[in-house]
Amino acid sequence: MAPGLPDKKKAEDEQSSKKNLIHLCNPHLEQMKEDVLYHFALGTGTQDFPTLFGEVKHGMGIPSIAIMLHELIKLLHHAKCSSVTVIRIGTSGGIGLDPGSVVITRQAVDATFKPQFEQLILGKNVIRSTDLDEQLANELMQCSNEIAQFNTVIGNTMCTLDFYEGQARLDGAICSYTEGEKLQYLKEAYDAGVRNIEMESSVFAAMCKLSGIKAAVVCVTLLNRLEGDQINTPHDVLVEYQQRPQKLVGHFIKKYLGKV
Ligand code: R2B
Ligand code: URA
Predict the structure, then answer these.
(1) Which residue numbers delimit the Nucleoside phosphorylase domain (predicted)?
(2) Does residue 69 sit within a domain?
(3) Residue 44 lies in a domain
């Protein structure tokens, strides 16, 4: 519990953090001193689970966001929402930018730098456009200029199917190319206008376009991929970086609602 907070606030905080925890439908577990996860060779008595796994994040990449978007788009339709704008915010690896820079996506491109999203549907390759709303991107850039707290650029975003070989990293479990080949590829990406790499923007752009939803992508870069692959920036710095897209989009929403 946070010290120094009034009792009501403490209780609310405790309740809201409990709400987000995984609920186990088994009252017996609470009575056990230790829980041994036999097949994982782990035990709560011998390992510190929150330290080991507390920061694990599930639900990354195209399949996860596509499933979510199918249902979100249907929800918006059933609710008869109109003139909807959707903005994806998140993290990415930058190319040729100082870490912490924010990229507003001009075009979401695939690993061959084409502004398209390819998907196998009924066994056939279907190619969909990943165009985003240019005016919205410019309005977001204007918001970043207004808050003037971090470097922001408009650039292409490469969307990949994998974090390691798919993003030309040298530190995956498998690597089939040299450092020189990696750097050549990233430089080609840069020359094609790519300023950051992430794993959701292409299907996001394609699905929003097909559904007539105005869309934008705003991602902070956690590292400069021309300088390395590992994300070893201190945790508190990463937390601050991750707030940048939220700050920018928060400003945009307030402006849109006439509150600034
Ligand atoms: C950016 O960061 C995640 C991978 O670390 C992925 O969800 C993405 O697009
Ligand atoms: N997310 C990615 O997809 N790649 C990075 O390098 C960093 C975050």
Answers:
(1) 56-254
(2) no
(3) no
Structural domains counted in the chain: 1
Enter the tokens of residue 244.
């940048």
User: Is 117 part of any domain?
Assistant: yes
Domain membership of residue 203 as a residue range: 84-258
| ipTM of this complex | 0.99
Taking CA atoms only, the protein residue closest to ligand 2 atom 3 is 198
Task: Give the tens place of pLDDT for each residue, 219-259.
Answer: 999 999 999 999 999 999 999 999 999 999 999 999 999 98
Sorted by sequence, the CB contacts under 8 Å of residue 86 that are 6+ apart come out as: 72, 208, 213, 214, 215, 216
Closest atom, ligand 1, to C-alpha of 90: 1
Residue 212 lies in a domain: yes
* Tokens linked to 86: 């959707």
Which of 89, 160, 197 maximizes ligand 2 atoms within 8 Å of its Cβ, making it the mutation to test the pocket? 197
CATH number for position 160: 3.40.50.1580
pTM of the model as a whole = 0.86
